[in-house]
Write a structure and sequence with these properties.
By secondary structure, the protein is α/β, with parallel strands linked by helices. The chain has two domains: about 5-220 and about 350-360, Alpha-Beta Complex (Spore Coat Polysaccharide Biosynthesis Protein SpsA, Chain A), CATH 3.90.550.10; about 225-345, no CATH class. The protein has helices spanning about 20-25, 50-55, 70-75, 100-110, 145-155, 170-175, 185-195, 225-245, 250-275, 280-290, 300-315, 315-330, 330-340, 355-360, and strands at about 5-10, 35-40, 60-65, 85-90, 95, 115-125, 130-135, 140, 165, 200-210, 295, 340-345, 350-355. The radius of gyration is 21 Å and the shape is globular. The two termini are about 35 Å apart.
């Protein structure tokens, strides 16, 4: 019996209200049972997920495991698949029609690439999206230079779980995913794939990424317990990535470039909610400016020096409250009257475009 062309792993935990839509979108890709293998890995759901998935048998293979988080779910499911390409789907998201054909075509056109990602619609709850997020054009990303590593950091949003497909040979090289990653288990896969051949990012919106209250990354939460959990995972990843990237031949300066933004956000969280001095805040924000901008105007330099003065006047927690207030009110438009600077990451790389639902299917 020949192997399927692709395997789909749908990971779920207590998402009975969404899982049928996710699976229906996989069936709508138009592949036969011999061409497409579908595995649902249930991370210990206590709702009606099992009975809902059972309706799709025998086309769908169902793995139920003790609750342990996303990494443990991936570790359970990946060895149970057989195709050369493995695509991932969170059960609270769903795919656009034609997604798998486009992804497999990209793999067939670039035999050396490790992974494929793509644009996506952002869906708030059950509403239809008004626009979608995609790169300016289909592109290749990797970790060959510091400049490309900076772009790769921005491109990660196009390689999250429901947008990610990876060659089996790459997953075998990556190996076991640390099970401390109760979420963000896609991050080591996509990051190490960029070191092991790079990725093609398609400029088409090929999945619907659902934003809802249970999604830790959906909203600008001020729930400190949730934030502590989120940044604890980030800190764990920052501990393990340097050695793993170096193992696959990535230079130290490139590692610093691709991990720098996450390190910065972890520092900011710790300064705001844990401990730190005004001087440490000043240094952190100066580094943030150097990482993000170049060729600032005189007015923009003055503005940043004023911000620096505020970091030295206010306790870190108060400063970051003020920074969050500034961002929520979109006061950057006022700052642009004073001066501006070029972003080091291309401003045109990530674009928001008007949605055409009829073209991509809903």
């Amino acid at each position: 019996m020949r192997k399927p062309e692709a395997s789909v792993i749908v990971d779920t935990y207590n998402q009975e209200q969404y899982v049928e839509q996710a699976l229906a979108s996989v069936f709508e890709q138009g592949f036969s049972p011999s061409e497409l293998e579908i595995v649902v890995v249930d991370d210990g759901s206590t709702d009606g997920t099992a009975s809902l998935v059972a309706k799709f048998a025998p086309r769908v293979r169902y793995i139920h495991k003790k609750n342990g988080g996303q990494a443990s779910a991936f570790n359970a499911a990946i060895p149970e698949t057989h195709a050369p390409i493995i695509a991932f789907l969170d059960a609270d998201d769903w795919w656009a029609k034609g997604k798998l054909h486009a992804v497999l075509n990209a793999f067939n056109q670039s035999h050396e690439i490790a992974a494929v990602g793509h644009g996506f619609f952002e869906v708030k709850g059950d509403s239809l999206p008004d626009d979608y997020v995609a790169p300016e054009k289909t592109c290749r990303i990797d970790l060959s230079t510091t400049e490309r590593a900076i772009q790769a950091f921005a491109a990660r949003r196009f390689m999250g779980t429901s947008k990610l497909a990876v060659r089996r040979t790459i997953l075998e090289k990556i190996g076991h995913i640390p099970e401390e990653l109760v979420f963000c288990a896609d991050t080591p896969i996509l990051t190490l794939a960029l070191a092991l051949g790079g990725a093609v990012i398609l400029d088409q919106p090929l999945c619907y990424y659902r934003l809802h209250a249970e999604n830790l990354f959906a909203f600008d939460s001020v729930d400190v317990a949730k934030l502590r959990k989120k940044y604890g995972i980030y800190a764990f990843l920052l501990d393990i990535f340097p050695a793993r990237l170096a193992e696959f031949g990535v230079r130290e300066d490139i590692i610093s470039a691709v991990l720098g933004p996450d390190q910065l956000e972890v520092e900011r969280f710790r300064l705001q909610y844990e401990h730190g001095s005004r001087w440490k805040t000043f240094q952190t924000e100066r580094r943030a400016f150097r990482m993000a901008y170049k060729n600032p105007s005189a007015g923009y330099k003055l503005f940043k020096w004023l911000v620096g003065a505020v970091t030295l006047l206010l306790p870190p927690g108060r400063f970051y409250e003020l920074r969050r207030w500034y961002g929520r009110r979109n006061l950057g438009r006022v700052r642009k009257v004073i001066g501006d600077a070029e972003t080091i990451e291309s401003q045109t790389f990530i674009q928001h475009r008007k949605a055409e639902i009829s073209k991509y299917g809903s």
